[in-house]
Amino acid sequence: MTAAIGRLLLTRFLLSLATLIFVASAVFAITNLLPGDVAQELLGQAATPEAVAGLRTALGLDVPPLQRYIAWLGNLVTGNLGNSLVNGQPVTALIGSRIGNSLLLAAITALVAVPIAIGLGITAAVWRGSLYDRLVGAATVLVVSVPEFLVASTAVLIFAVHLQWVPALSQLGRITGLADVVRVFALPVMTLTFVVVAQMARMTRAALVDVLSSSYVEMARLKGAGPIRIVVWHALPNAIGPIANAVAFSLSFLLGGVIIVETIFSYPGIAKLMVDGVATRDLPLVQACAMLFCGAYLVLVTAADVAAILANPRLRKG
């Protein structure tokens, strides 16, 4: 690894750390601006002001925001996410019971979406300008313009209500075999695949078209190399960085789409847990889930940048 690569990697990691600190501040500020009061939510509308004030004191909500922020940030660094204001359980336990479900949904979606998107992007780049390329381009633009909630609602209407092939709600407790896995995950995975495939395919095509237009690929073509050899041996190795960027950035869109998908299909994941926390004004839970999503996004973006840096031949050769 050259000194230039080392400096770039160090700069990228420091930038990610600074971004995470800024995001933590923004998450704390925004969650504290949520309307409503968890004490009022717990006691109900018939509670007296004295009872609400007493519960706020017991929950530590009457402490000045700056003091609460410093304490929360210190606990966040040490991994102490606090307790839920609603049921008193540790936030880490609540997240731990759901994170496996969200990771499973994301993994299945990635296994389905990434090969399809990369395949579409590579073939469209190889046959650029053809009818196939135009059809793929038009289809991806159409899919990108459709919001996730519309895709999910339409899928429920068609496959769950009219055809009755799959259930409208994704209940993991109903899984007893492979057929049940397909039935439970079909609609959420299909919706999330729509979210990421189009963008990933377009970015992959753009990256590969750029490499296929380079001088060394043209030289290989003049030397008599076939299309498959040009793509496999000359274009793809030099497009790994941009394609890795495309995959990472597109998968980061899952973090936004999964909130809608888990809510619509009542899937027991982290996003559904966060939405429930917002409804009950459970600030420690909402803050922890938001930081988890932000951290995952930063990891994906940083991994994409690192892959692009390491795959750059100019940097590798100094």
Which structural traits does this protein have?
318 residues, 14 helices, 78% helix, 0% strand
What's the layout of helices and strands?
Elements: H1 3-32, H2 38-43, H3 49-59, H4 65-78, H5 91-126, H6 131-144, H7 148-162, H8 178-212, H9 215-222, H10 227-252, H11 254-264, H12 270-279, H13 283-311, H14 313-316
Gist?
This protein is an all-alpha fold. It has helices at residues 3-32, 38-43, 49-59, 65-78, 91-126, 131-144, 148-162, 178-212, 215-222, 227-252, 254-264, 270-279, 283-311, 313-316.
Report on this model:
Helix content is 78%, strand content 0%. It is built from 14 helices and no strands. The chain has helices at residues 3-32, 38-43, 49-59, 65-78, 91-126, 131-144, 148-162, 178-212, 215-222, 227-252, 254-264, 270-279, 283-311, 313-316. The longest helix is centred in the middle third of the chain and has 36 residues, at 91-126. The model has no long low-confidence stretch (mean pLDDT 80).
Give the integer mean of the pLDDT values: 80
Q: Tell me what portion of residues adopts beta-strand conformation.
A: under 5%
The top-level CATH class of the domain at 102-316 is: Mainly Alpha
Please bin the fraction of helical residues.
over 70%
User: What's the total count of β strands?
Assistant: 0
Q: Cα distance, first to last residue?
A: 9 Å
Q: Helical element count? A: 14
Order of helices and strands: HHHHHHHHHHHHHH
The structural class is mainly alpha
Outline type:
globular
Task: Please summarize the sheet with the most strands.
Answer: none
CATH superfamily of the domain at 102-316: MetI-like
CATH architecture assignment name of the domain at 102-316: Orthogonal Bundle
Query: Spans with pLDDT under 50 lasting ≥5 residues?
Result: none
Question: Could you tell me the radius of gyration in angstroms?
Answer: 24 Å
If you consult CATH, what is the topology of the domain at 102-316? MetI-like fold
